[in-house]
Amino acid sequence: MAASKDSLFRSVDMTLTQLYVANEIGREVVSALGELGAMQFRDLNPDTSAFQRTFTQEIRRLDNVERQLNYFRTQIEKNGIGMRPIYEFSNTLAAPTATEIDELADRSQSLELRIQSLNDSYETLKRRETELTEWRWVLREAGGFFDRARGQTEEIRQSIEEADDAPLLRDVEQANGSTEAGSGIQQSFSVMNIGFVAGVIPRERMGAFERILWRTLRGNLYMNQSEIPDPIIDPEKNEEVHKNVFVIFAHGKEIIAKIRKISESLGAEIYDVDENSELRRDQIHEVNSRLQDLSNVLGNTKRTLDAELTQIGRSLAAWLIVTKKEKSVYQTLNRFSYDPARKTLVAEAWCPTNSLGLVKSTLQDVNDRAGLSVPTIVNQIKTSKTPPTYNRTNKFTLGFQTIIDAYGTAKYTEVNPGLPTIVTFPFLFAVMFGDFGHGAIMALAALAMIYWEKPLQRGKQDELFGMAFYGRYIMLMMGVFSMYTGLIYCDAFSKELSLFPSMWTWEFPDGYEPGNGMTVTAQRVEGYTYPFGMDWRWHDTENDLLFSNSYKMKLSIIMGWAHMTYSLCLSYINARHFRSPIDIFGNFIPGMIFFQSIFGYLVFTIIYKWSIDWYAIGQQPPGLLNMLIYMFLQPGTVEEELYPGQGPVQVVLVLLAVVQVPILLFLKPFYLRWEHNKARAQGYRGIGETTTVSALDQDDDDEEGGQQANGRPSFADSEMDGGAMITQDIGGGGGGEEHEEFEFSEVMIHQVIHTIEFCLNCVSHTASYLRLWALSLAHQQLSIVLWTMTLGNAFGFTGALGVAAVFVFFVVWFFLTVAVLVVMEGTSAMLHSLRLHWVEAMSKHFVGEGVAFEPFSFKVLLEEEGEGLM
Amino acid sequence: MANGWSLLISVLFIVVFCAVAWFASPKGENQTVWRSTLVLSAWACWLMWAITFLAQWHPLISPQRADLRPEYVNGPVKSQGAVF
């Protein structure tokens, strides 16, 4: 097949190619093809599990490198160090050599160890620091307790003597005897046989701690606590914790041990405190100096860590990309089969026919660079497999193509509805959204997004903005067309635009006063019709809706008719392209006649009625709705005549439409059966019944005439031109998927469904286009209401109040205009336009059931996976 | 200014526009997109215009209003003096 020029009109021609690559340069070849992004490799080892494949080892190693790089990334993010964005690398797309990959693996291995040890020592130091800080607090606070407690020993002793029920010091008294108690202030606790425990505990556990101690020790304790004003940082979780210092005095070794256990189990830290104040002072000094040293060391460690991470951050993005690419190369290589006899790798790939030259030259380059004498061989193989569908898009067409692809992938080389959608989608949107002002806002927003395309693309986008940004070119078209339809509707923010002199003049009747119940009726300027769009004099009139409803309803019908006729014509082009004349005679022509004889006729009558000056010829204009209904209920009789000879014309049209139904029903199935029987009679058999030949075998066994054998001119079969055919049983589910047996009943049922659907849909889809009228009416009325409720009111005020009111109301009006009328109404109109395309238009011609082309491409891979890097 | 002939003239204008668009579309891989977009846009816009024109060609009803002040007979007039 001669390579034709690729365009968006249909998906590009694809060729199944077979590559023979020398084993040594397999990696380089795949890498180069990944940069090219033009080939979709088929899996030649579908039966092998992921672990049995050739390059599993390499992939595992790269997985490990990737894990290490991701560890660096989390460390960098944790420490708040900036990463050099991917855009600053000039050569991100250069393929890495094998040694570079090895270097990278070694390097990340050693770096990981280093970062880990730095992190460990940093964390240890940090923990030590926290401990020391806590200890300092305990020393400081406990000192106060000791001083106070010592002052109170006297009181305590006395209180024991007086009231015999003080639980804490009863034992003390008994043990020491009352004689020793008098030694006063200098008496130490140890002498009194009172032990103590000092430490810190998280503040929220304090209450539980106290309660538990009280219950287990039955009140035999004396507890002091104070809050640490500064929060303490928990080194493991990196969170701030508020803690309290506590000192518990109690009597007896066992009780002290118990207290220690309880405090430890509640997560308290216990520190040594000396009761001697001098020793305590020394301790504080020591702790302070140790803290000093520690913070020096900590600072050094942190700086080293940061420096190391910054160093890594400078090239981390590139490393990540290199690893991802390398991994995908090996994953692709795993799809190849290895021919041990010839030491070559064999690959099969779909490739756009027009890219074959590029592929070949790329492979040649790789070969030359490697200095290999064995060339890489590219074979084109003919196949009965349906090639994947691939539409080349650019940034303008991508959005529109996405609309179509969201509905379904087109069949290989069928007419791509994405091309007319570029115009019809925004235009039908604009019919519903028609307002010059709102359209201008939308177009400007889209233009801004296009102008700052690059910076916006790199920045973080939230979901809603991301969607608007993705569809920026759709938005631009929608905005521009909305401005046009706004001019046609003569609406700019619901106000009129008096571009041309009006075709109406006001003639005031005698005694007319505004609001006295009399109406002014406009007089037509003789022989003059408003040249562009709606006449602005209709604005604010009482019968404005009467006129615009009639106008917009007919507009919707005509637009719908035009859109559906256009779409139906695409099915003719499809039938021509797939060389299936029966689809023209059995589907397209009867369908077209059916549609036109009813709705084409309706459109004709609408236009005819418009073009007759009914008052000049002194006739009553007939109602078209009744005419259409009675055309079917009472064919032949016309009550209000639109034109002479209307009755017979309508009878002919109805008969024409009715006759199409059996043609639609029976022509195609019976033709197919006849064709099938004829082929059978000539001795042909289905291709599935022939022996299969593996594509791996070099002998291209020819089976001339084997194709078309089942006699079914299905679209895919007729696409194949003669020559050798290979039925492949490698990969996928064998080659026979599109050669199912001819089954008349199935074809018949399919056609019955198609006929019923088509005929009913002609009616319901035409009615569906009335949404154009409904939405444009709603949009217009909503913007009028918004104007009168906000800015319209503001003009009622005078003086300074007026200035303020206009300002405030303008802000309210503008905000609501953007939020409600442009964003909300715009979304709703867009969804309706989407539906009109997917259901009403595409049902007329779209075959679908294609398989999307998914080339092995680094660009696509990075777009999908490297989101964090972008 | 505008009468029944406008329809014919506008069709001629669109046909000429389409011919120009067809041949003047930039060559290259996007030629189809240019051609289809320009021609379809032209016809869609023309259709919209033509429908609107036809609807007003022989109107069956005339505008009516009861709140029109005689000084506004010529449409939104320029304000004289008072700003608000």
Q: What is the strand tally of chain B?
A: 1
The strand count of chain A comes to 13
Largest sheet descriptor of chain A: 5 strands, antiparallel
In DSSP terms (H or I, runs of 4 or more residues), the helix count of chain B works out at 2
- Structure classification of chain B: mainly alpha
* Beta strand % of chain A: 5-15%
Secondary-structure-derived class of chain A: alpha+beta
Poorly predicted parts of chain B: 79-84
Oligomer: heterodimer
What's the helix count of chain A? 24
What proportion of the residues of chain B is helical, as a percent range?
A: 55-70%
Output the radius of gyration of chain A. Answer: 43 Å
**Average pLDDT over all residues of chain A:** 83
Uncertain regions of chain A: pLDDT < 50 for 5+ in a row? 169-186, 689-738
Tell me the strand percentage band of chain B.
Answer: under 5%
Taken from the alpha-carbon principal axes, the silhouette of chain A is flat
Euclidean distance between termini CA atoms of chain B: 36 Å
Cα-based radius of gyration of chain B, to the nearest Å: 21 Å
Q: How far apart are the termini of chain A?
A: 41 Å
Largest interface: A-B, 82 and 44 residues
Q: Assign an overall shape of chain B.
A: elongated
How is this fold's topology laid out?
The complex is a heterodimer of chains A (870) and B (84).
Chain A: E1 14-22, H1 26-36, E2 40-41, H2 56-78, H3 98-162, H4 170-180, E3 194-202, H5 206-217, E4 222-227, E5 232-234, E6 239-241, E7 243-251, H6 253-265, E8 269-271, H7 277-333, E9 337-339, E10 344-352, H8 356-370, E11 377-381, H9 397-407, H10 418-433, H11 436-451, H12 453-458, H13 463-470, H14 472-489, E12 504-507, E13 520-524, H15 544-577, H16 581-611, H17 624-633, H18 646-681, H19 715-719, H20 744-768, H21 771-789, H22 791-794, H23 799-841, H24 858-865
Antiparallel strand pairs in A: 1-10, 1-11, 2-10, 3-7, 3-8, 4-7, 5-6, 9-10, 12-13
Chain B: H1 5-24, H2 31-57, E1 64-65
Helix pairs in contact in B: 1-2
